[in-house]
Amino acid sequence: METVTFGVLGPVTAERDGRALALRGPRHRAVLARLVLARRRVVPVSRLVEDLWDVPPARAVGAVRTFVGDLRRALEPDRPRRAPARLLVTEGPGYALRAAADAVDAWRFEAAVTAAGRLPAAQAPDRLGAALGEWRGPAYAEFAGEEWARGERSRLTELRLGAVERRAELLVELGRAAEAVPDLDAHLDGHPWREEAWRLLALALYRTGRQADALAVLRRARARLAGELGIEPGPRLRRLEAGVLAQDPALDPSAEPAEAAARLWTRATQAYDRAVAAGSGARLESTVGLLRALAVTGGGGLEAARLHRPAAVAAAEETGDAALTARVIGAYDVPANWTRSDDPEAARRIVEAAERTLAALPDTPSAAPARCRLLATVALESRGVRSPRGPRAARAAEEIARNLDDPALLAFALNGTYMQSCTTAGTAPRRDAIGAELVALAARHALVTYEVLGHLIRLQARSALADFTGADEHAAAADRLAARHERPLVAVFTDWYRALRQAAGEAPYDRAEAGYRAAAARLDGAGMPGLERGLLPLALLGLRLSRGLPPRVDLRADWGPYRPWAQPFALLAEGERTAAGTALRNLPEPPPDLLYEALCCAEAALALALGDRAAVRRTYDRLLPASGELAGAGSGVLTFGPVDDWLTALGRALDRP
């Protein structure tokens, strides 16, 4: 069977079995390019007319149909007359190009870049090199001035530049720095504003014994950035220049990493103590930076960060300097994956301090980044609290970050948006979109902790949507990044996910229970009480209910914040139906967190057992938006079974007189 392939990474082309097809005039190629850009979706004829002409001629629609007919004859010359087209099809109000997933060079390129991100570091450079070989020139080359092509050209170009730099970074890390130098040289000739490429080139030269050349590159970078963009090099370039001048052992891959790191830490802390006055604002800001680093080390580090952070915020407020306080509060941009606070009282105090600081800051363009960080902090620290302020703060932070076009700021703001995304059931698709944007954004800009966060968010969302193949991929990606960048807390979440995977599948009950208990053991000493307290008994309750087994609730277990939902089950088991009914009626709406649907199902089970029609109606209405999902699986840690099973049982109860 003949294969038709298409090229848009350069001039637009079409080939059959390697032979170029004649596409006639430029408007024929424009129609083909526009359909490729649509990625198999239908493009209405009216949109094609708008895109092809600034001022459409009177017979523009007829001309488009003529172009399509000519393209069909070129793409499928052997198609019998009047037989339906297979490739360029008519559908609804327009046309679609039904090309295979590997038939377009741009699609192959993207797939290969994504696949390279899942490979071991030693294999990824070759895969990225093959992907970059797809490029024959600028994307959609002859349509550079067309509005309809602009966004896709920019996106593909940015993906290509990121792939070049990622490949170079991997080569440098793998001890193959010399291989990275020629590609980075060529890369920078065309893109001299790419600071990361300058840094990688200088580092590659330094690691091949060319210290003088590395310094020359760094000075050339400074001159180009200042001369063409009017900006100074960023902190990573400045740190590298200082390290090269000092022949810092941390830059030497042959040094023992632990030894080099220990020497560097000792020298740096001694120099800091000598240079920075005690009690200065700089010390406060540095303290928050240290706490941020501590928080991602897990266990005692996370607990220490949580303990000392409010004190740092209070000390900053005492200075009366709103700008300093904003920096101290906003610098703690530690990605958060769980929508229940580990210390609600400390979180409340930080929110109050952030609100006071927002009121004291001027509402000016120069203060916008600080305001954005404060608003994102309010959104993050208000997680699990049912109040309109958290969602409003999240929306405001995201809007500012997008307007400022600051990747790190946007990642922080998106974390706040995620934390406020559980106000109702059925929001897994929204969280999946947030996670996807975080993964793409963080991968482009080397924001590793946010890349991990994005994968964990997508793991949760795909679990809720019962897409365990997709969730498996995100769990593996998160684990790889965690291993490479020393993020031990990630394994807590991926272990719980694998326990959920067993519970939601066909694993025997005993095996699924053992999986939950093993995952709970990993929480011991992890420093995450907001996740740990009550999670295991709630997971086991969900396991029993999802398997059609009678609930078994032991109130001697630590149910933590979920005790109000556990107590009616215990009362029922003791035959105290009246007391259980009263406890059911007194249940609050579940908090807006990742276990919203799970607690709704627990309440539904009680409502069905007690025949409480009002509670049946209430839980039915709350769960209905999550139809088609796995209840509670959006947490990434447990499930109460398919939401539709609960809706069916509740609906039958409502249908009974």
Question: What order do the helices and strands come in, and which of them pair?
Answer:
Blueprint: E1 4-7, E2 13-16, E3 19-20, H1 26-37, E4 43-44, H2 45-52, H3 60-75, E5 88-91, E6 94-97, H4 105-118, H5 124-132, H6 147-173, H7 177-190, H8 195-207, H9 211-229, H10 235-245, H11 257-275, H12 281-295, H13 300-318, H14 322-330, H15 344-360, H16 368-381, H17 389-404, H18 407-419, H19 428-444, H20 448-464, H21 468-485, H22 490-504, H23 509-522, H24 529-532, H25 535-546, H26 563-573, H27 577-585, H28 596-610, H29 613-623, E7 630-631, E8 641-642, H30 643-655
Antiparallel strand pairs: 1-2, 2-3, 4-6, 5-6, 7-8
Protein architecture, described:
The protein has 657 residues and is mainly alpha-helical. It folds into 4 domains: 1-163, Orthogonal Bundle (Arc Repressor Mutant, subunit A), CATH 1.10.10.10; 175-265, Serine Threonine Protein Phosphatase 5, Tetratricopeptide repeat; 266-497, Tetratricopeptide repeat domain (Serine Threonine Protein Phosphatase 5, Tetratricopeptide repeat, Alpha Horseshoe), CATH 1.25.40; 530-655, no CATH class. Helix content is 64%, strand content 4%. It contains 30 helices and 8 strands. The chain has helices at 26-37, 45-52, 60-75, 105-118, 124-132, 147-173, 177-190, 195-207, 211-229, 235-245, 257-275, 281-295, 300-318, 322-330, 344-360, 368-381, 389-404, 407-419, 428-444, 448-464, 468-485, 490-504, 509-522, 529-532, 535-546, 563-573, 577-585, 596-610, 613-623, 643-655; strands spanning 4-7, 13-16, 19-20, 43-44, 88-91, 94-97, 630-631, 641-642. The strands form 3 sheets. A 3-stranded antiparallel beta sheet has the order 1-2-3, with no helix packed on it. A 3-stranded antiparallel beta sheet has the order 4-6-5. A hairpin with a 5-residue loop joins β1 (4-7) and β2 (13-16). α13 (300-318) runs parallel beside α15 (344-360) and α15 runs antiparallel to α16. It starts with a strand and ends with a helix. The model is unreliable at 256-260 (pLDDT under 50).
